[in-house]
Design a protein that fits this description.
12 helices, disordered C terminus, mainly alpha, 79% helix
């Protein structure tokens, strides 16, 4: 089990909320702790973004709770009814993410003894606001998120797994269980990369140079995600069409294997260029081996189609279709990687980071 930054920040937010509530002599302090837990967000931007929604949810819960307890009392049935009303109001206002906080506020406010309802409700309202503000403060001050590094880590792992899979698929030596496990790792890393990319986009920068740099990085990262999707498409095409009930000719399969070897090596090389571990040359040139291999596959495809015209059989039609699907997927992947290569070179032209070098 991994101890992440958000877990640590949640703990710190609870501690801060409890101390502040105790210092302000508010009771019971656990309401502040609950509010802090419910409102910790994965990024600073989302903390600010959700603060207004959280305040609205708190006010809605408090108002409904006060109205309910004054007009109907605070029996368990009435509290349950008021919770239903609060949920419906939040849903109608599209405040789905703050329903839990509203429910906590309703319960806190409706636990009213006989006496001054408004003073009691205000005390609970302040307690919950202490929890909300504590979580926001902790998110800003403690362990600022580094989504760029996490994104690159997961993307690098996804590339390692998918290039390994594509190479192994042509040899049919990987066991089915191992194949499924490796494929799941690719999917998990891609999903996590997309989540981290979204969080990275939400981060705000204030210096002009930093804004330009982040804008270029965002374009590069977006293309990394798109390239990974195309790599998955290529892997699925290989999975469905490389080895079928009517196997391709050995020389055609050998050509596909060679092209996969070139493309996967190019994929790894492009990622290493971003890290600054491979020299970047200017101006940009297409990878000759990869695109020569693409042309060769197209020639194979055209030749097979022409032979079908001369002697059309169902077997040849199927072989042509399988080769077409594989060729299309590999060519599209190569084009996306070439575009990623261009973007990385352009990025490093303007922003010299790490230990990369240019010539």
């Amino acid at each position: 089990m991994k101890l992440g930054a958000r877990i640590i920040k949640t703990g710190i937010a609870v501690v801060l909320a409890l101390y502040v509530a105790t210092w302000l002599q508010l009771e019971p302090v656990f309401f502040a702790a609950i509010a802090a837990v419910l409102t910790v967000q994965p990024s600073i931007y989302r903390s600010w973004q959700h603060m207004i929604e959280q305040i609205q949810a708190n006010v809605i819960g408090a108002v409904i709770g006060i109205i309910g307890v004054i007009l109907l009392g605070n029996s368990p049935v009435i509290i349950g009814l008021m919770i239903i009303v609060v949920i419906l109001i939040n849903l109608s206002l599209k405040l789905n993410g703050t329903i839990s906080l509203s429910i906590v506020t309703v319960i806190a406010v409706m636990e009213v003894p006989e006496g001054d309802y408004f003073t009691f409700a205000l005390n609970r309202l302040i307690l919950i606001m202490v929890g909300i503000l504590s979580s926001i403060l902790v998110n800003i001050v403690f362990i600022p998120p580094k989504y760029e590094n996490k994104f690159l880590l997961h993307m690098k792992e996804a590339v390692e797994h998918i290039t390994f899979l594509m190479r192994q698929m042509t040899d049919q030596e990987l066991e089915e269980t191992a194949y499924r496990q490796e494929k799941q790792k690719v999917m998990d890393n891609l999903k996590k990369s997309e989540e981290l990319f979204e969080l990275y986009q939400e981060e705000r920068t204030y210096r002009k140079r930093s804004k330009f740099q982040k804008a270029r990085k965002t374009v590069v990262f977006k293309q990394m995600v798109r390239s990974m999707h195309k790599a998955l498409d290529a892997m699925h095409a290989l999975e469905r069409h490389l080895y079928t009930s009517e196997p391709m000719q050995k020389d055609v399969v050998d050509d596909i294997k060679h092209q996969i070897s070139l493309i996967t090596a190019y994929y790894e090389k492009v990622m290493l260029k971003y890290e600054g571990k491979i020299r970047i040359h200017h101006p940009h040139e297409k990878d000759r081996g990869v695109f020569r291999g693409n042309n060769h596959l197209l020639e194979r495809l055209i030749g097979l189609h022409q032979s079908n015209e001369d002697k059309k059989t169902q077997e040849k039609d199927e072989a042509w279709l399988h080769l077409f699907m594989i060729s299309a997927a590999l060519i599209e992947l190569a084009n996306q990687l070439d575009y990623l290569d261009k973007l990385i070179k352009s990025y490093h032209t303007y922003h010299q980071e790490g230990e990369y070098s240019r010539s």
